[in-house]
Design a protein that fits this description.
2 copies of one chain form a homodimer. By secondary structure, chain A is of the alpha/beta class. The first copy, chain A, contains 14 helices and 15 strands. In chain A, the strands form 4 sheets. The first copy, chain A, has a 7-stranded mixed β-sheet with strand order 4-10-9-8-7-5-6, with helices on both faces. In chain A, helix 8 links the parallel strand 8 and strand 9. The longest helix of chain A has 23 residues. Chains A and B meet through helix 1, helix 2, helix 4, helix 5 and helix 10 of A and helix 1, helix 2, helix 4, helix 5 and helix 10 of B.
């Protein structure tokens, strides 16, 4: 699959969990859309070139990657906006059927961005946002006071993967609705929403899905629930008949009601290029093969670092058990390397190994500084990863990270 | 300025108020962004190529077109999402300082999409959405019960332009906040938000601003108010220090708090190409010259149709008084042409004259079927518009609209 991507030849790119690499098709398809469609057919493109269908068409493609059915997923807006929509829908539903439930349950380690959206919404609607500090405390906290369980399947720092099926079952048994953020899962492993049976899911288009910078997000609603949902961003694209321009809003019957404004066609078309590569990989084993490769890459990475021993200063934070981890590897820094995470990453980048550094919370042992390495199975090879590890070993052996050019902090991305 | 746009040579495009034409630069700039930036520098583009600054940088460019200051406008999300943000901010503000105010005042003829957003939000927050039926009733309805006055400056059907300055003053004197939608104004006429002094404004990037299909929208908040606003879409880009990844949301000090998720870079970069053409027009007279041309075009159009007399079956709906109209012309259909609006437009399109047909509300004389012609001053010439009028006259004279190929309804855009 690597041949379908354009990658800089002098870099080993380990940030595909932050911004996925560029599909070779994207530039040409966008040029065609701009020049041959917009430039030639102008406003008539909406019908003539299927622009109107893009949010649902790309949604159907994502559905195949996350184990959802056709017509169950829309692509629209950003992940944060989509999270807001589904969390509002979930809270409105519970306020109607179970008004005594007052808690939105999440964890401290969830995406900060998800926590921001949830916290403000809970404040506005009079719910309590309860964030457990440790994964082990989650199951016990799911009780009859919980309105919504809000989790991200794969942790963006540690790569810890929750047991979505089990936690969803526990929530359902306790009468809570579930909202899952799949931003660090979809495109890296097979998912089966139909089997796991949560109520809502959202995710990101620009990470593993290779949709380009700021690609729109997506959202899925359990088909048994979608037509009964009320969400607050009632824009015209969510109307049952948008081109009637009626003054009254009438929501589309199913998932379409989660659309809002006019879709960003250029960004959507770029996302479709990434999705098409995942569909092209289906005859080669699809997401099962992608996951097999991903786990092989992370195992190589983790076992190599573990073999160096803790005297190297590096400790693997990501789970050893395959079923428990996503598709990136996180390392914390100890001993001589304490506080040197930024410099180590700068030294790696100078050698063409592009990972990222995530600062921890000073004084909080549960949130150490991390080196984070995304392993994108469609593009990353084992030999390439081994070379990256060689560079890392070299940097430690030569104490290259002590050089002033690496320790000097610039703007952090 | 026309040379800076790529227009199909065999068409007269009169739908720039729906989807603006393609700037010649757009395709090349997008190709460069995709191949030389994303494909080469990947995640490091956010700093290296100024992607992080795009929402505020494009906002500053729009600010110059609408009479706002630098740092007062952000580009983000869709117009509907932005309207939701500012309307929430306005209602939250009033709930704090004037809780007895219970009405959001608008008009029946506002954009349906704006009405949808406002109606659902009012329902959720316990406000009454009061929509006056006639413009003349607006001033009298602005009283001490009104929390927010929500209007679109230029009506999307009739092209009627409100007196923003006066209505804003009346609202301010009555203690109401004002939200203006500039989607059919910005890029077609000079605006001066600083002088008019409303509280909030939103607008669209894909109409007169030529930002491409589904280009992000923008929003402006009066600088005296921005830092005190609470809006519910508290995504990470609105955080004061997004890259600290703190668990607590801390809003950016000013307009930045109205950003939400990761910005759609491809769509933003395309919008910037359109904006740059408006800035390039500044030495040629800028928005004053644009408005002068626009009024000349609409006058030519309206006076020609009026000269045909009402026996032509066409009646000009748009205001004759220049200060009272936007940059499109709307015609209703009478006599023999009653009910034939769709067919007349199809006949025009077959001759390469691209306008649009907006169905009215059966039985409601205040909402007739309309032929709508957008006049985009940067690209449309007087001779070209005269040719379009010649085609329209021919279609009427030959009763071309009676042909079955034009009367058969297909999907409406």
């Amino acid at each position: 699959m690597r041949d379908f991507f354009q990658l800089p030849p002098d870099q080993i790119y380990l940030c595909g969990n932050s911004l996925g690499p560029l599909p070779r098709e994207t530039s040409g398809r966008l040029a065609n859309l701009i020049e041959a469609q917009w430039g030639r057919d102008l406003v008539r493109c909406w019908n003539r070139h299927g622009w109107m269908e893009l949010p649902l068409r790309t949604g159907d493609k994502i559905a195949r990657l996350i184990g959802a059915g056709p017509g169950e997923v829309v692509v629209a807006d950003s992940t944060s906006v989509n999270l807001y929509k589904v969390l509002c829908a979930a809270l409105s539903h519970q306020a109607r059927v179970a008004p005594q439930r007052s808690i939105v349950l999440t964890e401290d380690e969830n995406f900060p961005s998800d926590l921001y959206i949830a916290a403000e919404l809970c404040r506005e609607r009079g719910f309590e946002l309860a964030a457990v500090k440790e994964e082990a405390a989650l199951s016990a906290a799911i009780d009859e006071r919980v309105a919504v369980l809000l989790l991200t399947e794969v942790n963006y720092r540690s790569a810890l993967r929750h047991d979505m099926k089990n936690l969803t079952r526990l929530a359902r048994e306790a009468g809570a609705l579930t909202v899952w953020d799949l931003s660090h899962s979809a495109g890296a492993m097979p998912l089966d929403l139909t089997e796991a049976g949560p109520d809502f899911a959202v995710g990101c288009g620009y990470k593993y899905l290779c949709g380009g910078p700021g690609a729109p997000g997506y959202l899925w609603v359990n088909p048994g629930l979608a037509g009964a949902c009320v969400q607050p961003l009632t824009g015209w694209m969510g109307h049952d008949r948008p081109f009637d321009f009626k003054q009254q809003y009438e929501p589309a019957p199913g998932i379409g009601r989660f659309l809002c404004g006019t879709p960003p066609i250029l960004s959507l078309a770029a996302l479709e290029c990434g999705l098409d590569l995942f569909l092209a990989a289906e005859p080669l084993g699809g997401m099962g093969a992608v996951r097999h490769k991903s786990l092989g890459l992370s195992r190589l990475f983790m076992e190599t670092v573990k073999a160096w021993g803790i005297e190297s200063g590096l400790r693997v934070v990501s789970p050893a058990e395959p079923a428990r981890r996503g598709s990136h590897v996180a390392l914390s820094l100890e001993g001589e390397l304490s506080g040197a995470g930024y410099a180590v990453m700068q030294a790696l980048i100078a050698r063409g190994v592009i990972g990222d550094f995530r600062a921890g919370e000073p004084g909080n042992a549960a949130r150490p500084d991390l080196l984070r390495f995304g392993l994108t199975p469609l593009t990353l090879g084992f030999a390439e990863l081994a070379r990256a590890l060689g560079h890392l070993r070299d940097i430690l052996d030569r104490r290259e990270w002590r050089q002033e050019r690496f320790t000097k902090r610039e703007k952090v991305t």
